[in-house]
Amino acid sequence: MMRSVMIACFAVACAGTATPATAQQQIDEAMPASGVVVFQPSKAQLEVVGWARDSVRLVARNAAGIVVELDRSAGVFELHERRAERDTAVLASYTLYVPATATVRVRMQAGEISLRNLRGGVRAGIVEGSVLGDSLSGDVELSSVAGPVELRRSSGRLLARSVAGDVVMSQVTGIVRARSTSGDLTIATGLAGPVEAETYSGVISFEGALAGAGSSFATHSGDIHLRLSAAQDAVALVTNVEGRVTLMCGGRAGRVAAGQPVVLGDGGESFDVITFTGNVRINCGD
Amino acid sequence: MKHPDDVLLSAWLEDDLDDAAQRAWISDHVEVCIQCRDAVQELTALARRAGEEPPEWPGKEAAWELLRERLGGAQPSTSPMRGGTGRPKYKGARWGWRLWLPTGAAASLAVILAALLMRSPASVDPSVLALLAEDAVVARTLESATGSEGAAGSQAVWSANRMISQGVDDLERALRARPGDPALTMLLRRAVEHRAQLLTEMPR
Question: With a cut of 0.85, is the ipTM above it?
């Protein structure tokens, strides 16, 4: 049975118990370490931090006139933000502490989302604004429509995507996917694979080592720059209709004919490099 | 002079454009542009004949079959375009985007595919035609749901849609010059899939 608890009631909404609008509001609630936390404020600077406690804490600043309620049901802790019409433009500031192993689902219209130290899986999306993830693991999906997305020091099944923004993934391992339409993709990995990077008009820059089969790097018009480990054994299958393909690997340097497999090191699993009009450059530790 | 393309014209003909300014622009434009008036007449005739006419060449039937197969799941109970509540929650599945297509999308395919068939040589791969028709529906859905003004999210998707349209046009032209080229076909397929993924990004 769902239980609804009002965990925060801020100044304007609670006449008579008025608190200065800039004062910090804080609420705490016990929750299991394996629970799910859902929060979908409309416009905020939201920081989600995993901590070593079996509880959730929401700290709100600049949230006058905004009410946050908690619905708790079967391990799912859903925070609901309610705003009066006149407060829709207020940029609230929230810090949400959750058990580090909890699963987090966050969705916002505008603002900034940052998340760190979460190991139970994350899905965070925003329409207008940025998303930053640091030290995340498990199934991780970060997205923005009109802003940049960055993911650092993370592992697992990772997806970072944007429509108009750049995507940066650094020190990531596991299954790595980056996607944008007009933004650039910059990816630096340890041993990772498969890696899928696709942007329509942006540039792809990848640095790292590919493991296993199934990696691909694709653009329509953007260039693709791959800086692979000197020890990389693989075969690059390059589809390039109008651009140039340049290879600098193990003493080999020069242009490569499109459609011709490029053997790196001792060969091995293949990966795809696909572009219509972009140029492709492959370096191997050089 | 800027002209509406076949997709916009067919949407206007079917009274399926949400944007009042766009409707007014096309109405005014068709009044003064002989070329577009002819196109409207052709589209009207094609729409009338699309369901009745026997295949003119074998590829046409194959294209229809492929199209029906590919869009088989594109029938949500209510339209996300009309403020209905039928928009599904996020689908991680690669093809989940089809659920974002508006209810009336499949109905427009007759006009769109007919227009594509009209201007394509018989040598064009039926699967490419089906792909282009499907893509036209997605492009139109995105065009109707977003705009060049207003919220940043809407603008971002609108710009992305326009950019992909340009790229698809380039690929289509290249494919007319080199029918069946596997690299171009693969690039076209990727562009179409990329655009389709934008359906999941349309601002709520």
Answer: no
